[in-house]
Amino acid sequence: MKADGPKIRKLRETSGQGLRRFAKAAGISASHLSRIEREETNPQPEALARIATHLGCEIGDLKPETNGDESGNDHGRAGTDDHEGSRGAHP
User: Fold this and answer.
1) In the CATH scheme, what is the homologous superfamily, with its name and number, of domain 1-63?
2) Which of 6, 52, 66, 87 is the one with CA 20 to 30 A from 34?
3) Domain spans of the chain?
């Protein structure tokens, strides 16, 4: 699921929580949260739900604005964290 990583980072930092502490509370690894915030990977819906819960917001608040593009095109980014090496790769 596509997430707005910089927005997640900003909300987390604004809440005063460090990366490791927040990741532990959300039940994900700190390295995975870091990759999500840098938009190197997209979280599974369950992980994004836990992040939203711990930020006190809705999942929809953490998705990027589409600017009218509802196609879901992620412009070559990996769809899950299983494809770390494919970032930016094109077929």
Assistant:
1) lambda repressor-like DNA-binding domains (1.10.260.40)
2) 66
3) 1-63
